[in-house]
Design a protein that fits this description.
heterodimer, A: 803 residues, alpha+beta, 28 strands
Chain lengths: 803, 53
């Protein structure tokens, strides 16, 4: 058996991954594949080997990447015009998104492109945006050469259909920074000018002119805060007010208006300092809190459209010749060429011979599908057999996958619902409003109109809901940051809050519970000689079919034997002669064995000479410890499984998904969506966990859609949450941590209520002076922010999460 | 005490100058990418000569 064979434990010098199968040697360094070796050779030839010393394991494996990608479309001037965003003479400026960049070595290499290709004048990296800005001289090199260079050194840029449609020069939102800076400046200076007023109630300055100057200067400084910095609050509260709805900005807007109005009245009529310091403080802290909460993880974009998956150009077959055309120019009825491993860009009819397609992205079915001539092929399928001709049946923007993508859009307004904390805030504001009126009424009845009026106003100012607002913004902000460190990326606070209520988890199988591209292999048959294993490995190594690859990997035989008469028939198998021994490996039909229908597992038969020696049984490889993870989750949530695959694995999975109705196979994307709808109709809050584009509508339907991805640079479907696959073992802890948000928030609320009670008790007696307001404001803010910070760290440590 | 007015005006104008300096630098994009320069500074000893074309 294979276990008795020696397996080499070398790691690749370029990517650091263990070398399975063939090991390539070069200058006493080992490489796992030709791709990694090529990258090393290019770097070595250009004295760029410092790349390997800057960071540990900087390279990414080049296994499975295909050199045969065609970049001829980059010579097309209409494509160039859309990609090059600035041109001056022969100097061209172009920006590429390079999703695979991940460490300082990447930055170093990408900024040294000019050493490899002198036609490149400079290259700059924006790491968080995963962007490289390249300036090159079109007289010396071309766009195509630059892209091919990037591809060769393992940093393939992301060129997609989306780029062609609208090259969006993303404007970074700097307005928020301006507002914080201005509010901070005004707040600080008003505080300074209010200082005399804190002591001895303004009588400290006997000089009337000085008093006047201080007051009016503060008023002048507060104008930009009121009219510019707080603008968002006005706009959003007014919009909601028009729809007769409540939102979080309204109580804040009210507090700001009251503080500002009262201050003007105080300054102009009474020649006394008002509450301008408190007002600008409210605005400053509010903006700061929002900045922290919105600090987005911009390198993960959650809303990518399907078009970013489609290629940028296609080969059109016209008058017996190949022409490169941007995808946007393709019309119905055009004939296009698709080569092996290329994506079908739009719904099209197959012409000529039958062909095999990988439909996993469209339907979730992981086995390849055979298509006959004149059958419709959906966009998103990947061609697995040789080159085919297709006739375009639908415009790319109308294809099935685009429809699927768009069908559920705009049906759900996840982010428009109020957070619980915001609801509490509204109740709190209403209470304060009434308390103010009550205090005012009480003093009026006592005949003290002046005190009543002061009590009314100060109650409204001091009990500003800003402390409550801050506690939620900072708590969610802290938690989102900590979760990000642990590989869980959440779109926004609303999703985080929704996740607390989740009681049903729906899993997709392929790529979620199993690892895509890895399988478990078993051999059933007679005892085999080591020499025979070597012969089999020699043959399977020649084929790129995933089943052959799985077998090659399982055998892990380092020696390379030559193969003669190699033959490969799509969908059937391979044959050849190794060391004089004729071998056939493939389907039952291929080797002439009796087809076996009892088991649903994929079988690969082996025929040595005239004897059928046995067969490999290949099943999906589950993620490590997935069963124990699911079992632990099962104690808190109800688990469901929806798979696009056949039910070959039903038995294995029934250990975890105990009730048969919780498992469904052969599910189309529509079925998944419907199943989630049914669960929601039963009053459940559903979290959908999947991986591919075929889950997109299910993600939309669910209350929280979690996409599991192998690496940050993978294609991201529209989802609410992204979980990096290496962190899946922590899923239980992460969910528990999310649940702790409530505890942290309550603690902060209690604290801020305490401050409010103190403040209110002063205010209701009409004793609240500006100095008390000025002390209470920052003290409460700082202690609440601190509490939320410490508690969110404490719980992270409690669940053994990285902080 | 009227010297206070001059001092206040002085201090305010200095603070305002810093604010304007900050706003200009933010507008020129100095705060758009705060991550890469932090890494780049550790790398560039030998790249300097070649990138300045």
């Amino acid at each position: 058996m294979a276990s008795s064979l020696t397996s080499t434990k070398t790691t690749c010098y370029h990517c650091g991954e263990p070398c399975t199968g063939t090991v390539l040697q070069c200058e006493e360094k080992s490489f796992c594949c030709q791709g990694c070796l090529t990258v090393y050779e290019i770097l070595a030839a250009n004295q760029l080997c410092r790349y390997y010393t800057l960071d540990e394991k900087p390279g990414l494996t080049q296994q499975g990447t295909h050199i045969n990608t065609y970049y001829d479309f980059l010579d097309d001037s209409s494509v160039q015009d859309k990609l090059i965003h600035f041109r001056e003479g022969t100097q061209c400026h172009v920006k590429f998104i390079v999703p695979v960049m991940h460490c300082s070595s990447c930055i170093w290499l990408l900024e040294n492109l000019c050493k490899i290709n002198p036609g490149i004048q400079s290259s700059r990296v924006n790491f968080l945006e995963k962007e490289v800005s390249v300036i090159f001289d079109s007289a010396e090199t071309s766009l195509k050469e630059v892209v091919i260079l990037l591809k060769k050194i393992g940093y393939e840029p992301n060129l997609s259909f989306e780029d062609l449609q609208h090259r969006s020069d993303k404007k970074i939102n700097r307005v928020q920074i301006y507002k914080i800076a201005i509010a901070g400046f005004c707040f600080g200076n008003i505080m300074m000018l209010s200082l005399p007023d804190y002591f001895a109630g303004g009588r400290f300055l006997n000089d009337q002119t000085l008093n006047l100057v201080f007051n009016y200067l503060s008023l002048a400084l507060s104008l930009p805060v009121f009219f510019y910095c707080a603008r968002e609050s006005w706009v959003s509260s007014w919009q909601y007010l028009k729809q007769r709805k409540l939102n979080i900005d309204q109580p804040i807007a009210l507090a700001i208006i009251i503080a500002f109005g009262v201050s003007i009245w105080q300054i102009v009529i009474n020649n006394r300092m008002g509450y301008l310091d408190s007002m600008s403080g409210i605005v400053f802290f509010m903006l700061l809190g929002r900045f922290f909460q919105n600090r987005s993880y911009n390198y993960l974009s959650f809303r990518r459209s399907v078009s970013s998956y489609l290629p940028i150009a296609v080969n059109q077959w016209l008058d017996g010749k190949e022409h490169n055309r941007p995808l946007t120019d393709i019309q119905i009825g055009d004939e296009i060429l698709i080569r092996q491993q290329e994506i079908v860009p739009t719904d099209a009819v197959l012409m000529g011979d039958e062909a095999w397609f990988d439909y996993s992205f469209v339907t979730g079915e992981s086995n390849w599908v055979k298509k006959h001539p004149n059958e419709l092929i959906y966009a998103g399928a990947i061609l697995k057999s040789g080159m085919v001709h297709l006739t375009v049946a639908k415009h790319p923007s109308q294809s099935y996958i685009t429809q699927l993508w768009n069908s559920q859009r705009n049906t759900k307004y996840k982010s428009n619902t109020l957070l619980t904390t915001e609801k509490i805030n509204l109740y709190f504001s209403a209470t304060v409003f009434l308390l103010g009126l009550f205090a005012c009424g009480y003093w009026m009845m006592q005949g003290q109109v002046q005190t009543g009026f002061i009590a009314l106003i100060t109650v409204w100012i001091v009990a500003c809901p800003c402390a409550l607002l801050l506690s939620s913004t900072f708590t969610y902000g802290n938690m989102l940051t900590i979760l990000t460190h642990n590989g869980l990326y959440i779109k926004n606070a609303a999703v985080l809050e929704k996740m607390r209520w989740v009681d049903a988890l729906v899993f997709d199988k392929t790529g979620t519970l199993t690892r895509s591209g890895e399988s478990e292999v078993d051999f059933v048959g007679r005892d085999m000689q080591p020499a025979e294993w070597q012969q089999i490995a020699a043959l399977t190594r020649r084929s790129i079919h995933p089943l052959s690859k799985a077998i090659t990997q399982w055998l892990s035989i380092p020696e390379h034997l030559p193969v003669e008469d190699y033959q490969s028939v799509d969908g059937q198998g391979i044959s050849g002669v190794v060391q004089g021994q004729a071998l056939r490996i493939g389907s039952a039909h291929w080797v002439g064995a009796e087809a076996f229908t009892g088991s649903r597992l994929t079988r690969v038969y082996i025929k040595i000479g005239n004897e059928i020696a046995g067969f490999f049984e290949i099943r999906n490889q589950y993620r490590k410890d997935i069963k124990s993870i699911l079992k632990r989750l099962g104690s808190k949530f109800s688990l469901h499984l929806l798979s696009g695959d056949q039910d070959a694995e039903k038995k294995t999975l029934s250990e975890v998904f105990t009730r048969p109705e919780q498992m469904r196979f052969n599910q189309l994307p529509e079925d998944k969506t419907k199943y989630i709808q049914e669960l929601q109709a039963q009053g459940k809050t559903v979290m959908m966990i999947g991986d591919g584009l075929n889950d997109a509508t299910a993600f939309e339907q669910s209350d929280a859609g979690v996409a599991i991805i192998e690496q940050e640079n993978n294609f991201l479907p529209a989802c609410d949450v992204i979980l990096l696959a290496p962190h899946i073992h922590q899923f239980n802890e992460l969910m528990a941590y999310v649940g702790k948000a409530k505890t942290i928030l309550i603690s902060c609320f209690v604290l801020s209520l305490l401050y409010n009670i103190i403040g209110l008790s002063f205010a209701m007696q009409g004793l609240l002076t500006p100095v008390i307001a000025a002390i209470l404001m920052p003290v409460s803010t700082v202690s609440i922010v601190g509490t939320s910070y410490l508690l969110s760290r404490y719980y992270a440590r409690h669940y053994k999460l990285e902080t | 005490m009227s010297v206070m007015i001059i001092l206040i005006a002085f201090s305010l104008s200095i603070a305002a100058a810093f604010l304007v300096a900050f706003l200009i630098s933010a507008r020129k994009g100095q705060y758009d990418d705060v991550h890469t320069p932090a890494i780049r500074i550790l790398l560039d000893e030998e790249t300097q000569s070649t990138t300045n074309v």
